[in-house]
Amino acid sequence: MTALIAIPPVFLHPLADRNGHPGALLFDAGVLDQSDGPPALPEAVVAVLRDVAGGSMSCFYRAGLTDALGRVLDQAGWKKLPAEKLHRADAELVSTLPSTVAWIEGEWFLAPPSKPVGSQVASRALALQLVQLVSADADTHEIEALLRQDPTLSYHLLRLVNSLGMGAGRRVTSFSQAILILGRAQLRRWLNLMLFSSREGDQRSPMLLARVAVRARAMELLSRDAGLGKAQQEQAFMVGMFSLLGVLFGLSLPEVLKPLTMSEAVQQALRAHEGELGELLGAVEAAERDDHAALAERLQALQIDMDDFNQVAADAYLWMQTVASGKAGKPHA
Q1: Which of 142, 169, 200 is the last residue before a domain boundary?
Q2: Are residues 120 and 46 part of one domain?
Q3: DSSP per-residue string spanning 190-201
Q4: Strand partners, 103
């Protein structure tokens, strides 16, 4: 396959509600708008947008597009978002917003966290130890012993595992039971997701979880489309998760990664964007920046078509919605 530049990429971004929780998606279609002629939106792209609109989150496009393109998006289940209902925040989430604002865009959740104090310091240290144990595939009793020290981490793990649905009247009540049912690979990814969802006192957590869920799932699916095996797909998911650990803990990524046991391919991808996993990480980061040229270059190197990327984006954003709602099941690449 070769990258089909004629097919435009679907660039989506989660919007936070006034409380800082992901609740909607924004499709910025301005680059596709045309003043004359039909809208530059192939049916394949419309189909992807229609799939995403079938999820649990509201789906919007910016006001100001031509009527023709607006009608296409309306029919696909997307709604026009007036400018006064949208506020941009890149440095911090302000507590006072105009009454007209319903949604917040921007990357405020990537700003450094406030300096932790008291119990937050202990919780952060335990979380880092947990990441180390999981990445090293430690014994079950070691992970369980660490989880017992932090009720917040324990709660989120059992909540996520129980959300998978284990049969009527059956609930997972112990960590050893969860590991037995899920298997170590699935436990590893759920524990990583849990780290982003259980940051007590960190207002960034819900949106960080949304970003990392999309990134990890997209990398997993893109690695499949690039022809990589199951083990490499799992590594791609891990790279997506670990790539934002520095942001989560307010440390440099090399500092966070130093004590972790990882394969050489994962380390190269995270530290230098090298290898196939590094190309995959560069592709999802380009999509986050709405960088069409950089995305097309990465996809061409990976021999992935743009329409395949769009399908991956739809799947990743739909999966993120289930993760954000606490109802996610096992993803299947």
Answers
A1: 200
A2: no
A3: HHHHHHHH--TT
A4: 86
In a shared domain, residues 162 and 91: no
Instruction: State the pTM of this model.
Output: 0.86
pLDDT tens, position by position, 67-96: 888 999 999 999 999 999 999 999 888 888
> Rounded CA gap, 204 and 16, in Å?
10
What CA–CA distances, in Å, run from 126 to 10, 119, 247, 315, 332?
38, 11, 17, 32, 30
**d(C-alpha 121, C-alpha 102), whole Å:** 33
Centre a 10 Å sphere on the Cβ of residue 316 and count the other Cβ atoms it contains. Answer: 25
For 221, the 3-state DSSP assignment is helix
pLDDT band at 2 (very low <50, low <70, confident <90, very high): very low
Q: How many domains does the chain have?
A: 2
**Strand runs labelled E in the chain:** 12-16, 22-27, 58-62, 79-81, 86-88, 103-105
Burial label for 129, CB within 10 Å (0-12, 13-18, 19+), is: middle
Of 256-260, 295-299, 318-322, the poorest mean pLDDT is in 256-260
Q: Name the percent of the chain lying above pLDDT 90.
A: 51
8 Å CB contact between 293 and 282: no
**Among residues 109, 139, 161, which one ends one of the domains?**
109
For residue 101 the two structure tokens come to 């604002």
The DSSP letter of residue 263 is -
Residues 6+ apart with CB under 8 A from 3: 296, 299, 300, 304, 305, 306
Which domain range does residue 145 map to? 115-200
